[in-house]
Design a protein that fits this description.
By secondary structure, this protein is α+β, with helices and mostly antiparallel strands. Helix content is 26%, strand content 38%.
Length: 184
Amino acid sequence: MELVEADMIEECICEDVDLKDAEQELAIAQDMIKLCAEKGGVGISAPQVGIYKRMFVWMISDTQFQVVFNPRFFPDGKKIKTIEGCLSYPEEEYYLTRYKYIRGVFYSPIMVYTPVETIQIKKMTKRFSGINAIIFQHESQHVGYDNKPGRTIAQIGEILAEDKRVGVIKKKEKFKSMLEKVEI
């Protein structure tokens, strides 16, 4: 699995994940987690690897990723200014406006322990703030919704000149060391 060229994800239309038969997507998610960890990212969406489904994986702690299917988010508060990087634009940083608080609605696999371990897909509604709200918005925008195309930071943000960058890319090195501990 590898990243596709950025122009392959701009304005792409993604289809919903069929939650009744998501085994293939769960296998894909495992590969996405490995690639995200290798690249030093905190999230990666399916279109970034050439799969046009509404799914992404993201770090929810220093040692754990979460798989997200069919995400939506709803603003819940004021806007903030952010500077972001993206695995699809590895040497660039962008200035954007995001919501500081959002309510995310999505589906995620969870392990259920009955006589045997099974995975069930559960609908979740969570309130996110700060960096988690920013990452959830970033990844959700890659996959779009309601047949609306995915958008990237290059399309909605303003690229920063090299002398204005704050080192988002350098911070990826910190994540790489943290990712050595990640459960995959």
